[in-house]
Amino acid sequence: MSLHHAHHNDSKDLAAFGYQQSLERSLGSFSSFAAGFSYLSILTGMFQTSGIGFANGGPAFIWAWIAVFFGQLMVALQFAELAGHYPLAGSVYQWSKQIAGKAWAWQTGWMYLAAQIVTIPAVALGWQVILPQISTRFQLIKCTVSTAAGSTCLDPNFPLFDDPAFAQNALILGLALVALTTLVNALGVRLMALINNVGVAVELIGAAILAVLLLWHAHRSPLTVFTDTAGTEVAHGGSYFLALLVAGYMGLYVMYGFDAAGSLAEETANPRKTAPMAVLRALVASAGMGFVILLFGSMAASDTLYGVGGAGIGLGGLTAITKDVLGATGGTIFLWMVVVAITVCCLASHAAAVRIMFAMARDNNLPGSSKLARVSGSAKVPVLPAVLIGAISAVILLFNLVNPHAFTIVISCGILFMYLAYLGVNLPLLRQRLAGWPNGAHDYFRLGRSGIVTNGLAIVWGLAMTVNLAWPRADFYGPLWYQQYGVITATVGVLVAGFVVYYGYQKNRMGVLTEHRA
Description:
CATH superfamily: Amino acid/polyamine transporter I
CATH architecture: Up-down Bundle
Order of helices and strands: HHHHHHHEEHHHHHHHHHHHHHHHH
Number of helices: 23
Largest sheet: 2 strands, antiparallel
CATH topology: Amino acid/polyamine transporter I
Radius of gyration: 22 Å
Helix content: over 70%
Strand content: under 5%
Shape: globular
Number of domains: 1
CATH class: Mainly Alpha
Strand order of the largest sheet: 1-2
């Protein structure tokens, strides 16, 4: 079958859902996988937040990584099946629209859009965590607080993020990265995919090399890693389970966004076959590589860095371990790979946000929908959403100057919003499954009898982690009440804003725009 004929069939398939082909269908199976993998981006999330994991759970917090993978796998299985049935741009929004009512689908899409937008500045802050570690020249704002260990705003340990210079410099670097991703996403999917594919290749190779080098230098047994809590349970009332709930934040941040492969379905060839496996491969590859890096890193850290009872590696996380094991030169080279990973992760996050905004606007489900859904004639992408999302991301970055704990709050909001959006799909999906969904014979990805069980587990997992993320912990979000309740306040604010927009303006306007109708 010729490529043109295959694309024609994909366009006819899309028309069955009521849409005409307006985006450029040029992505293959690797590009689809790369979109999901770069969104998860183990090198981005792990190097940004591993200090939190080690500091709150010690080396044994690797158990939390395993638990998060299992929970997210239950979610990914549902999304893989949905991606085969509904290969549409906007993934979570479109899936909820197909299996739930209009009001439910709109609120799910609204929360999903908020999650995608908040994730962009959260990832962009990663440049501040890594670049000054490579060279102090990237710390453009002089640090104001110092300790015996050195300048605190150059230390990637979470409790030391309070230095104003860290927040100010993070704003500058974050704005630069957001400007870059805005430009690339506005120029077309081909350029975005090319950069993303190269970045993912670099990340895969880099992660594999790092795992091998860490294992080569290992001098501590896996048993030690799996049992060494570093005494972190003391800070959590003697309960290591409570310590793991906080330490698991790292895994929660890394292992979401695998649905990005589904968001690009209308730009992917043969998406019914490609997207489901891309969703699962992205999660499994990220979780597997992340696991060995955490395990081998804890096994390889020098006794000096490891400290008494594994407490030392909580001060610098994987960044400190990498430089400790590979040396200054080798560590710096690898940290440049992490910078590449952060860049393509932010790019993929931006691309996913553009697709969900386009998908909702195409259904006349956002104010100014006709302009937001307009596709550029040359680039074949919705340019206005790319620019608007970049501008909103820049505004969110400004909060880093107001609240010294904004780094953690922004990341937590991104995760929590996404978990709520995922629940917006999994809850009505279980109801549909109990009523007999999916109906008819087909060759799409199918869970069969395990669908109800895995769907139920996905819901239980989502509800539990929603509570965990919203928990107003003083030692995590800060000592002030507005810091501790920042995530809850932001979540309620987004939900209320969604209800106001929907019932006050949007409710009776929903319908595919004429220019996008098949």
